């Protein structure tokens, strides 16, 4: 895996929806298990993390249909599927798009505040406090979580813009652009997807696999025997090495 500098840059493509399929459960488990490691790595300057969220667009000819109006914001420009596939039942796809947008903006505001690792706290707290299963997946619940982390709600809302406007949203347009593959990096089409130093990571989205990939970038700094020794042990040992490197 290429490593142009000594800092690992990685992305997680995920979703705020917690009832879409078993993959949603995998994403929740990953955030829960990797949060502490990710925050330590970023605080120490060893890694830079960026969350991403997949969106689709509705063809212009269908933008007035019930399907597009239920699943999309900004007049069909940014969409997410309805989890029940029943447009009169439960949460709508457009609610998921709005929450995905909010979480992107939480990360941007946290970065501007010098607290980029705060996204992990928001993502985990939101999943615990604002789940769909408990019928708490809402704007009000999300804003309570933002406030509890000491982030500026005003800045988050300004970043989000107006989801009802017949106009592009700069944050979500950038997400759609980043979904498209380039060079050795393919399109992002499934969740969860990890991208490390601009190369897609296709292993299990778990602590061990993640740390093995990150520590693999440091392989050139180790002798063969030391590398093999570290590589056969736990994520905690690999993390300890990364932090001491």
Automatic annotation (TrEMBL):
Transmembrane parts of this sequence:
none
**Where does the record place the Vacuolar sorting receptor thioredoxin-like domain?**
8-204
Q: What are the record's GO terms for cellular component?
A: endomembrane system
Q: Which InterPro entries match?
A: VSR_TRX
Q: Name one Pfam family in it.
A: VSR_TRX
Keywords assigned: Glycoprotein, Membrane, Repeat, Signal, Transmembrane, Transmembrane helix
**Protein's cellular compartments:** Endomembrane system
Query: What is the name listed in the Swiss-Prot or TrEMBL entry for this protein?
Result: Vacuolar sorting receptor thioredoxin-like domain-containing protein
């Amino acid at each position: 895996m290429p490593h142009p500098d000594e800092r690992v840059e990685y992305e997680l493509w995920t979703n705020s929806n917690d009832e879409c399929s078993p993959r949603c459960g995998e994403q929740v488990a990953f955030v829960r298990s990797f949060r502490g490691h990710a925050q330590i790595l970023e605080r120490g300057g060893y890694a830079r993390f960026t969350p991403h969220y997949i969106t689709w667009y509705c063809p212009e000819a269908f933008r007035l249909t019930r399907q597009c109006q239920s699943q999309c914001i900004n007049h069909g420009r940014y969409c997410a599927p309805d989890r029940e596939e029943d447009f009169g039942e439960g949460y709508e796809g457009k609610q998921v798009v709005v929450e995905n947008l909010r979480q992107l903006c939480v990360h941007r505001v946290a970065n501007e505040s010098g607290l980029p690792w705060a996204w992990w706290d928001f993502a985990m707290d939101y999943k615990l406090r604002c789940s769909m299963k408990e019928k708490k997946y809402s704007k009000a619940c999300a804003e309570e979580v933002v406030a509890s982390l000491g982030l500026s709600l005003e800045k988050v809302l300004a970043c989000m813009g107006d989801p009802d406007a017949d106009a592009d949203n700069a944050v979500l347009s950038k997400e759609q652009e980043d979904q498209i593959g380039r060079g050795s990096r393919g399109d992002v089409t499934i969740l969860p997807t990890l991208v490390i130093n601009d190369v897609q990571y296709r292993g299990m989205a778990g602590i061990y696999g993640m740390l093995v990939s990150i520590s693999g970038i440091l392989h050139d700094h180790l002798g063969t025997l030391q590398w093999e020794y570290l590589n056969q042990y736990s994520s905690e040992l690999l993390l300890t090495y990364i932090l001491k490197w």
